[in-house]
UniProtKB/TrEMBL annotation:
KW Metal-binding (keyword) present: yes
Top-level lineage group: Eukaryota
Xref: InterPro entries: HD/PDEase_dom (IPR003607), PDEase (IPR023088), PDEase_catalytic_dom (IPR002073), PDEase_catalytic_dom_sf (IPR036971), PDEase_CS (IPR023174)
Protein name: Phosphodiesterase
Chain positions recorded as Zn(2+) 2 binding sites: 188
Length: 434
């Protein structure tokens, strides 16, 4: 072999060694930065490597030559339009909206609200992108009796109305309004129709993933934000980095506030705010810092989440039937699995009328009464309807065929169960620093 051939061979060998060393360093770095997701038993991904429940988004608007007037294809646009004209009124019938929007109530109400509030223009959100995201989000709401697309629509529309309270006029920025509406829309996505406590008691994968803390709320946030990663769904694409970070923080703070274990602390904070609130000469609240502003918005979304008893009676009664069926289905599962049956979840013992009066007296009324004090007098009509609905169920209690105890003792027992269920979950979870 000639000297030149030897030099060429040595040079090539050195290159191969350098390249191999480079691959080793690269692989080592990948091991440090990105732990392998491969199951050591071979094939497939390791458990918890993905956010469960997330499906590949479909580009819903690709097949449309032009966008429907109200964002969704409707057989009767006139009736749909009439319903959406009332998007700013308390007590919108979301069951009718579900029908006339071809089972797209969340998409229809979100499209209406975003246009009314000029959010598409303010944040440069293409209409197609908003519709893609909302339809994809709606696809991820499960077919459970209560925590479904209609509940998401109801809470989103209720938040929209509460944001329009004269006492809150011009109080919140456009970004805060966008974050609040987004949080309302995503707050129960992929909800499986059972409580956080059931997920803990049954040792579910979700409880494992979120360490037993606000499991459903954390999961819904993860799904809601994950869907934004698809380019056709990224409604926040044109926000600045700082805006996206601020919106994400607010949305997390808001959705976590819908965990019922936070109820007592939220209510206490709002009562303190009522006692110390500052009001401008026009009657508008003065909120000086992020803590005060987010507390009002947290209580707002919590009120919207617990607003069924404040709606017109026929709508409220439909919601009661749905939530009780979801509770009973959980109770059936608990019975089959040998778990303790949760309060109000035993279809053989629960009394709907008692549970509703107890729920209103000890949870809903104190919350809404305090909210009404905060935005006085804007929520008085809502409070009046709540009290009328409470009286309706109170008057049904003596007619219950299983009633043996006096109504007052029954209510006390029902309320004790409700309060125990909330405060016991609250005690199990560390409270955030205030």
């Amino acid at each position: 072999m000639s000297d030149s051939a030897i030099c060429s061979w040595a040079s090539g060998l050195a290159k191969i060694k350098r390249r191999a060393e480079g691959f080793r360093r690269q692989n080592k770095q990948q091991e440090l930065d990105l732990p392998a997701l491969e199951d050591s038993r071979g094939g497939g991904e390791a458990p918890l490597s993905k956010i469960c429940g997330v499906k590949k988004p479909l580009c819903h608007t690709n097949s449309l030559t032009q966008l429907p007037r109200f964002g969704v294809e409707a057989d009767n646009e006139m009736e749909l339009g009439k319903l959406l004209e009332d998007s700013g009124k308390w007590g919108l019938d979301v069951f009718k909206l579900d029908t006339f929007s071809n089972l797209r109530p969340l998409t229809a109400i979100a499209y209406q609200i975003f246009r009314e509030r000029d959010l598409l223009k303010t944040f440069k959100i293409p209409s197609k992108t908003l519709l893609n995201y909302m339809m994809t989000l709606e696809d991820h709401y499960l077919k459970v009796p209560y925590h479904n697309r209609m509940h998401a629509c109801d809470v989103t529309q209720s938040v929209h109305v509460l944001l329009s309270s004269p006492a809150l006029e011009s109080v919140f920025t456009d970004l805060e309004i966008l974050a609040t509406l987004f949080a309302a829309a995503v707050h129960d996505v992929d909800h499986p129709g059972v409580t956080n406590q059931y997920l803990v008691n049954s040792s579910s994968e979700l409880a494992l993933m979120y360490n037993d803390l606000s499991i459903l709320e954390n999961h819904s946030l993860a799904v809601g934000f994950k869907l934004l990663q698809d380019e056709s769904c990224d409604i926040f694409h044109n926000l600045s980095k700082k805006q996206r970070q601020s919106l994400r923080k607010m949305a997390i703070d808001l959705v976590l506030a819908t965990d019922m274990s936070k109820h007592m602390s939220l209510l206490a904070d709002m009562k303190t705010m009522v006692e110390t609130m500052k009001v401008a000469g026009s009657g508008v609240l003065l909120l000086d810092n992020y803590t005060e502003r987010i507390q009002v918005l947290q209580n707002m979304i919590h009120c919207a989440d617990l607003s069924n008893p404040t709606k017109p009676l026929e709508i409220y009664r439909r919601w009661v039937g749905l939530i009780m069926e979801e509770f009973f289905e959980q109770g059936d599962r608990e019975r089959e699995e040998g778990l303790d049956i949760s309060p109000m979840c035993d279809r053989h013992n629960a009394t709907v009328e008692k549970s509703q009066v107890g729920f209103i007296d000890y949870i809903v009324h104190p919350l809404w009464e305090t909210w009404a004090d905060l935005v006085h007098p804007d929520a008085q009509d809502i409070l009046d309807t709540l009290e009328e609905n409470r009286d309706y169920y109170q008057n049904l209690i003596p007619l219950s065929p299983t009633t043996k105890d006096p109504p007052s003792s029954q209510l006390a027992a029902a309320a004790e169960k409700i309060q125990f269920h909330i405060t016991s979950e609250d005690d199990d979870q560390p409270q955030p620093d205030s």
